[in-house]
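ugh ok fine here u go
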Amino acid sequence: MNQKNSLGLNSCFLDIDDPIHLFHEWMEEAKKTEPNDPNAVALATSDKKNIPSVRMVLLKDFNKDGFVFYTNLNSQKGNELKENPYAAMCFHWKSLLRQIRINGKISLVSDQVADEYYSSRAYESRIGAWASKQSEELNSREQLLKSIQDYKKKYSNKSDVPRPSHWSGWILSPDSIEFWLDGENRIHERLKYNKDNSGKWIKSLLSP
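structure:
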């Protein structure tokens, strides 16, 4: 028999008022059970015409301020976020039958934060950030491979590869975070946190 919290939900929802804390607990569980990339998240953006687009990215950090990922700023998602800074994320962990949805506004991380993360990446990944004109059309795969080799010659010192100005991180500052648990006969359990005007998180149960 499942243990319940004070809201009548499965005990995995815990009894805490901070959704970032709950996210941390669920992510730690996912790290134990997901076979690949527990930090993979679907990121939804839209352009100035409100045409949506979604793709998987990797969450690289999170804290009380939001959820961080990195990309080429001139990619499709980068250009869309420049036009419309509102976005959504969705984590889905099949091994746990859990899902987390996050909505909010996105802004760039500081240059210092981007530099620190970029310098922690493998040499090949740092070179790739220079060589790939992300989302642009390629004449051939060989064109990309040649670009990689050219930048390896330019930056042959593996400890000295500067971060491209067109490559950085975005942080999604959440306005709402919903935690979802699969239930029998599609009677799922849903707990949503909404941030009020004072910055306080308000919890509410949602019908499946």
